[in-house]
Specification:
single chain, two-stranded antiparallel ribbon, about 1500 residues, 75 helices
Length: about 1500
């Protein structure tokens, strides 16, 4: 019996039956049908139930006792009708207990099996309905609950309204139960009582209580009005949840229901007070956050709860860290202001000095904690302040502890809301009544109140803006800015007292007060010396913010020092003023020493040193200030000032009042010497001095520069070179700030014999005219630094010409000639010096100014002078001169192309024939590798340029154009030019007949100059070489083939590429747009646009793009035909390496710049740079190029560059070329790594339909117009016309069109599309026609081939039988190609239908789109794609061709293709019944045939789906069901 029963149970579960729609006949059952239950006896049911109940016992031990009672074997014999009333009462209690326990496990099969026995044996569905509903009503939305209700007799019970559920078998939605509770509150009361009983018993409390809580809240929201009866119904449950000992679930439910009641209706004040008291009184300490959240909700929605009930208040203060919990609620954005308004004022007014309720003995910690941690509004602060003041008025004078507590609370409140406290004070004083004359009662009452409140206000508002002065004459805020200095002094002293008193008790209470800080800082800058002096002496000044205090001291010192050193006769300044100013400066310096010592605040050491340096040099006007500054500076531990410790004692002994000029000079020299010695002995001192030079004022800079001058000139400790190297850049910066400043004559200012120490004349001049004296000292120090530079610094100066440029640009020019000569003298041999000068005259300045032009002209003149001087030296010097002149030739060409006519003229003068340097260079031999130019060719070039000097002077572009045109004219000569000997017997002298181009150069000279410039191009990659590099590139436009120009420019490009990734130097700006803006008639415009300067990355990319585009018509094939250098392994290897290097230069910015340049020039074609980039992508597969291009490394490099960013930078035509090249490479490339790189690139790139539209059109073009038979007449009116029979025209597309279409369709299957896919519907339907026709034609060919093969086989058999010795197996019959062709066409048809299915009926958004491309492994992945334009195709009904789909279904050669066609027809019938109706008969026929002929379940299901989708449209149009 057990096995049969178990089999029946399994069958019932597998069937997954829904509840029946009516109560059938038979025995009631939860898991069997009534008929099946009738066939089972009680013992069988008990055996099944016992098995399930044991599973429940394993889950919950509380079931264990019922094994021996309700589920014992003897229970099968129990008969309720035969038992006594008491026995049945005990049985009902036991049943109620076990049902309550089952509530948590109702949906488990084990629980249903146990319940089955209770239903059969004890009839719980009849006798224990209340227990059943109490336990399982929570599952009212489940089929299991419906089955339970269907077993219950409901007539005459409160559940009679569930009879519709019994009949329909449909679960009851939550909204139905809610509406029932709104109409019949007894149901809601039943659920509430069930929850309370469950919570009391501790069984399934969370489930039942949560259900009741949610149901009650939904009932409150759904009720049209919340009447008193509903409130009274819920309040007992709320009180039960808030009572002492209530469980956690019941308490939280009470909180939620009470919050909903408060939000949706108005509760009476007694009810609110009772609930608030219960919630606070009975809450465990750990539930404080929940209680406070409930109270916040009550106060927010029920204003009558304010003020907070006193009983609740006493219990609330028992919670730990109420302030912290409130702050946490604020962080959660809970609105707490209504709660604070109800809580804080009564708490402040009623709190005793000592309380038994508060944990700490008083309410003060709670109040201050809330004020410090929780933001409060003015609307809360003012009532609280009024409560504090009212409590103070009622206070007895003897209760000092309470008064002090109130004062502390008021002080904390004032810091949060000072205006609200002031308003409360004014309101309280005004409430004393109107004045009735001078001695009226109102005036007396106000005076009495003021007198009583004065101690509280002075203690509570100490240091606050509204605090009264001791004489109660005014407030502190008014007094601190009063007109009278005496009042201001009184106010700041009161401030100091308040700060000191507060600091003794609670330092943090006042340390950061804005009013105190601003008041003290204003008084530090007071115009009255006494006020400022008193402020400096306050102890509270140390509590000011360090940054603000330091700035205030600096301003005070500078303002007072200006008065101190003012010359006699200054208006408004007398002797006493200067004396007071000296005292104030000394006092401020002492405060600086005390507050900013190195041990406490080392961050201010540099700023303090810069300030003290201004006062180190002694003077009669400064009095004792220098001595004080020297003493403080020596203790700063500043690296530059450490040497001052040795001179402090000597300087302290001096008497400033009797200081003579000689004593002053000796003192100054002593200080300068000590500082210079520190520079010479300590690298940290040099670094510190460099920082001081760049940021200190003129007075301090004078001291630092004097020390640098002495250290470099005297070469102290042999460290003059080190000092010069470290401080030369800073000296240049300092001198540049005083550019064009006239300087005093250097005579008599320095003691040359003493190492350029200052003289009395210099010190006197510094007192009278500091700017001129400082300029003289700076120039002297700069010259000494240049002269002290070591020879090793020449390399640094050569690589960075900015030092020379800054020096050469300083004005007046004649003042720095000696400096320039000294700097050039450090650069030996001659060639580095020439390159150093070339950086100045050959570079185009970012903005053309008179100073820049003067710099270039002066550089050319210096070059001319040094070259001529070297040319007159022995042979070695002459050779160096020739080599140097050749090296700087590109820069000279750039100078000849300068916008400034002065620069071009100076360059022409330097290159004029007859100059010693030019004469020497004309005799120099040529280098073997083209690195130098022979003297003959050099002389020819210079002579030709000199002959064209008028054009060069008139036009900045003339020189470059002449050279470029000459190269262009020599181009037809080809390689013969390079084969002409440049020296020896084979060399011919240039003749008029062999002259080439506008420069009339001999062909061998043209070749030599081109080779030389191409060789020099690779060296022009520094920022100072930018103009020369651009000039050479422009000049080489007509030189040789594009591949040769590429080879010449590639080293330069490789130098640029790393810099383009970081912030580029001005090189890129100049190279990108420097010369393009040169054609200005006035020549005054800036050479670089502001946009390029603001975006250096774009400028660098533009530089690379322009260099690439400068090599016009570049292609990889040109590189391949170029003869490579012998040292490489072979032409192919070199070409591969060069092409990969070139591809690595392509960046998004460079391609964007190149595309922009192409569009601005009005051309629709790609630039040369982009064409070069696309070469590795194009392929022969779809007519885009010449096969899979390049080698594997080239293709791999190019495909890894195909990022979305680079793709977005291209034009649409270039984007399509790249995408299709990648698509072809992903399928046709023989290298797996390159194929994988193409696939990864396709995954990342966006797919646009226009990329592949042409590929589909090539296939669709094979679709001929359909030949249609005469339409058949409809049988009934109103039905759609019958579908015309379609005759498919057979035509087979070529392999290229089919392969391209398959690739496009596969791409549409697995990749998201950004466009509207519905635009492809018409095109895809044409593809269906083409494929249907092709399959028809291929099938005919296959049939013919099969017949021919059969005939051939028959002939072979007959011949083999009649011919002795002939083996029939040896006869080779060619295999027919049509089956394979049909397979390819079937695959194309299948994925075309799949794509159309995705457009017609896209999957749910929950279906994830595939994120990988693996067409070979899984070609049909389109069914799971989440299309980007979901359902877009359904709106374009006119574009759908149902006839094409029908034709595809009819000719589909395999099951899979037919299944896709039928699924698509089902989609169209569902979404577009009108379109499907035209072909309804044929669709029904196809679907019916599929159902009848296909044995697999999937095909049958799809065919059935198509039938079910089409039949409603057929019937709606009047068709007969029998026909369908």
């Amino acid at each position: 019996m057990a096995s049969v029963l178990q089999q029946q149970l399994n069958n019932a579960r597998q069937a997954v039956r829904a509840p029946t729609s009516a109560v059938p006949r038979g025995k009631p059952s939860l898991i069997f049908s009534p008929q099946e239950a009738s066939d089972l006896d009680v013992r069988s049911i008990h055996e099944l139930a016992l098995k399930g109940f044991r599973e429940l016992c394993e889950l919950d031990g509380r079931f264990q006792p019922f094994l021996s009672t309700l589920f014992a074997a003897a229970a099968t014999e129990i008969d309720r009708d035969a038992q006594t009333l008491e026995q049945n009462r005990k049985l009902d209690a036991s049943l109620a207990a076990v049902l309550s326990l089952m509530a948590d496990h109702f949906l488990l099969p084990a629980a249903l099996e146990a319940l089955e026995f209770l239903v059969r044996r004890f009839s719980v569905q009849q006798h224990n309905q209340e227990a059943l509903m109490r336990a399982f009503l929570v599952y009212h939305e489940t089929p299991e609950f419906v089955r339970l209700v269907q077993t219950m007799p409901l007539v005459g019970t409160m559940w009679v309204w569930l009879q519709p559920m019994q009949k329909s078998g449909a679960p009851m939605p939550r909204n139905t139960l809610v509406q029932r509770c709104v109409k019949d509150q007894a149901v809601l009361r039943f659920v509430g009582d069930a929850a309370r009983l469950a919570a009391a018993a501790g069984e399934c409390a969370r489930l039942q209580v949560s259900f009741y809580q949610v149901l009650a809240c939904e009932v409150l929201r759904a009720a049209p009005r919340i009447d008193e009866g509903l409130v009274e119904l819920l309040l007992p449950h709320v009180r039960a949840g808030l009572s002492k000992g209530a469980g956690q679930e019941l308490r939280l439910a009470a909180h939620v229901m009470l919050g909903h009641l408060a939000a949706l209706t108005t509760l009476s004040t007694p009810v609110l007070s009772e609930c608030a008291e219960l919630a606070v009184k009975n809450a465990p300490p750990e539930t404080a956050p929940d209680v406070l959240l409930l109270l916040a909700a009550l106060c927010l929605h029920q204003p009558q709860l304010s003020p907070f009930p006193d009983k609740a208040l006493k219990h609330l203060v028992k919670f730990d860290d109420v302030a912290g919990e409130l702050a946490a609620l604020v962080a959660l954005r809970v609105q707490l202001q209504p709660l604070l308004a109800a809580l804080l004022p009564p708490l402040a007014e009623a709190h005793p000095a000592v309380s038994s309720h508060a944990p700490s003995g008083t309410y003060e910690p709670l109040l201050i904690g809330v004020l410090q941690q929780v933001p409060i509004d003015a609307a809360v602060a003012q009532p609280m302040a009024s409560a504090i003041l009212s409590a103070a008025l009622r206070e007895e004078e003897s209760d000092s502890a309470r008064s002090a507590s109130l004062a502390r609370i008021l002080r904390c409140l004032s810091r949060k809301q000072a205006d609200a406290v002031d308003a409360a004070i004014n309101a309280l004083l005004a409430d004393a009544g109107p004045a009735s004359g001078a001695g009226g009662e109102g005036q007396g009452a106000r005076a009495q109140r003021s007198a009583k409140l004065l101690p509280l206000l002075r203690a509570g508002l100490a240091g606050a803006a509204s605090a009264p002065l001791p004489d109660n004459s005014t407030t502190l805020a008014l007094a601190v800015d009063a007109a009278s200095p005496q009042t201001r002094v009184l106010a700041i002293r009161e401030l100091d007292r308040a700060i000191t008193d507060a600091a003794s008790s609670n330092a943090a209470d006042i340390a950061d007060d804005t009013f105190l800080t601003q008041a003290l800082l204003r008084r530090l800058g007071d115009d009255d010396v006494e006020v400022a002096s008193v402020t400096l002496g306050l102890s509270s000044i140390s509590r000011l913010p360090p940054a603000a205090l330091f700035d205030a001291l600096v301003k005070l010192i500078h303002k007072s020092s200006a008065v101190m050193v003012s010359p006699p006769g200054t208006l408004g300044v007398d002797k006493s003023d200067r004396k007071q100013a000296r005292g104030l400066v000394r006092k401020a310096i002492k405060v600086l020493e005390a507050q900013f010592s190195p041990s406490t605040r080392p961050a201010y050491c540099d700023r303090a040193a810069s300030l003290l340096l201004e006062f180190l040099l002694p003077s009669a006007a400064a009095g004792k200030v220098p001595a004080t500054a020297l003493r403080v500076a020596s203790g700063l531990q500043h690296p530059f000032l450490l040497g001052l410790k040795q001179v402090v004692e000597a300087e302290t002994a001096l008497k400033p009042a009797t200081l003579t000029g000689e004593q002053r000079t000796v003192s100054a020299c002593r200080i300068v010497s000590a500082l210079a010695q520190q520079l010479s002995s300590d690298a940290a001192g040099r670094d510190a001095a460099a920082q001081l030079l760049e940021g200190c004022r003129s007075q301090a800079q004078l001291v630092v520069v004097l020390a640098v001058l002495h250290a470099c000139a005297a070469d102290l400790s042999g460290a003059g070179a080190s000092v010069a190297t470290a401080l030369l850049p800073s000296l240049l910066t300092a001198c540049q700030r005083h550019d064009a400043q006239p300087a005093l004559p250097a005579d008599g200012l320095f003691n040359a014999a003493g190492g350029m120490l200052p003289t009395e004349a210099l010190l006197t001049a510094a007192d009278s005219d500091l700017p001129q004296a400082l300029a003289a000292v700076q120039r002297a120090a700069l010259l000494a630094a240049v002269q002290a530079l070591p020879a090793t610094t020449a390399a640094t100066l050569q690589s960075d010409g900015r030092a020379f440029q800054r020096l050469a640009a300083m004005q007046p020019a004649e003042a720095f000639e000696q400096h320039l000569d000294a700097m050039l003298g450090k650069l030996a041999p001659l060639q580095p010096a020439m390159q150093f000068l070339a950086a100045a005259f050959g570079g185009v300045p970012l903005h053309r100014t008179a100073a820049a032009t003067s710099l270039q002209v002066r550089s050319l003149q210096l070059l001319e002078r040094h070259l001529d001087a070297a040319a007159k030296q022995p042979a070695a010097k002459k050779a160096a001169t020739a080599a140097a002149l050749a090296v700087v030739l590109p820069h000279l060409l750039a100078a000849l192309s300068s916008l400034a006519v002065e620069v071009r003229s100076a360059a022409l003068d330097l290159l004029a024939p007859g100059r010693p340097a030019v004469t020497v260079a004309a005799k120099a031999p040529a280098g073997e590798d083209g690195s130098s130019l022979s003297g003959v060719h050099f002389a020819q070039l210079l002579a030709a340029l000199t002959d064209s000097q008028e054009a060069v002077r008139a036009d900045p572009q003339a020189a470059t154009a002449l050279v470029a045109d000459t190269f262009q004219a020599a181009a037809p000569l080809g390689d013969a030019v390079r084969d002409t000997p440049s020296k020896g017997k084979g060399r011919k002298k240039p003749t008029e007949q062999t002259a080439v181009g506008p420069l009339a150069l001999a062909p061998d000279a043209v070749a030599a100059v081109g080779e030389f410039l191409a060789c020099r191009l690779a060296h022009l990659h520094m920022s100072q070489d930018a103009a020369a590099a651009r000039t050479v590139l422009r000049a080489l436009q007509g030189w040789h083939t594009p591949g040769a120009r590429l080879l010449a420019a590639l080293p330069l490009l490789k130098q640029l590429a790393p810099s383009s990734a970081s912030a580029p130097e001005p090189f890129f700006d100049i190279l990108a747009v420097g010369q393009d803006n040169a054609a200005s008639p006035s020549g005054d415009q800036a050479l670089v646009q502001d946009a390029a300067l603001a975006a250096p990355h774009a400028a660098s990319a533009s530089a690379i793009a322009q260099v690439l585009d400068g090599i016009t018509s570049f292609s990889f094939s040109d590189l391949a035909t170029r003869q490579m250098a012998a040292q490489h392994t072979g032409p192919g290897a070199q070409r591969q390496a060069l092409s990969c290097d070139l591809l690595s230069l392509y960046t998004v910015e460079a391609v964007t710049q190149a595309q922009h340049a192409g569009s601005t020039n009005g051309g629709s074609h790609s630039s040369g740079a982009v064409k070069g980039l696309l070469d590795p992508f194009v392929s022969v597969g779809w007519g885009l190029g010449h096969g899979l291009p390049g080698t594997q490394p080239e293709r791999l490099t190019a495909r890894r560059l195909a990022t979305p960013q680079l793709h977005a930078a291209l034009s649409f035509s270039d984007q399509r070329r790249m995408f299709l090249g990648l698509l072809w490479g992903s399928m046709a490339d023989t290298d797996e790594e390159a194929r994988s790189a193409a696939r990864e690139a396709i995954k990342a790139l966006p797919l646009k339909l226009r990329y592949i539209q042409a590929m589909l059109e090539d296939l669709a073009d094979f679709a001929e117009p359909q030949q249609l038979e005469a339409p058949r007449t409809a049988k009934k009116r109103g039905r759609g016309a019958a579908a015309p029979a379609v005759t498919i025209v057979a035509q087979i597309p070529n392999n290229i069109a089919l392969d391209a279409a398959v690739a496009a369709l596969e791409l549409l299957e697995w990749k998201r599309v950004a466009d509207d896919r519905s635009t492809l519907v018409a095109l895809l339907c044409r593809c269906l026609w083409a494929l249907a026709g092709a399959i028809t034609a291929a099938s005919k060919v296959a049939a013919s081939e099969a017949a021919a093969a059969a005939a051939a086989a028959a002939d072979s058999d007959s011949e083999g039988a009649s011919t002795p010795g002939l083996d029939s197996d040896a006869v080779e019959v060619p295999a027919p190609e049509s089956p394979a062709r049909i397979g390819s066409l079937s695959y194309a048809l299948r994925i075309c239908l799949s794509v159309l299915h995705g457009i017609a009926a896209p999957p749910s958004p929950a279906v994830a789109a595939p994120d990988s491309m693996d067409v070979e492994a899984s070609p049909n992945v389109g069914a799971a794609v989440e299309w980007a334009a979901e359902g877009a195709g359904l709106e374009a009904e006119a574009s759908w061709d149902v006839a094409a789909v029908v034709a595809a279904a009819r000719v589909a050669p395999d099951t899979d293709a037919r299944r896709h066609a039928l699924r698509l027809l089902a989609d169209l019938a569902h979404y577009q019944p009108a379109a499907a109706l035209e072909h309804v008969m044929e669709v029904i026929k196809l679907a019916g045939d599929a159902v009848a002929t296909h044995s697999d379940e999937v095909s049958s299901a799809v065919a059935t789906e198509a039938l079910l989708a089409v039949l409603p449209a057929w019937l709606a149009a009047g068709g007969a069901p029998a026909e369908g």
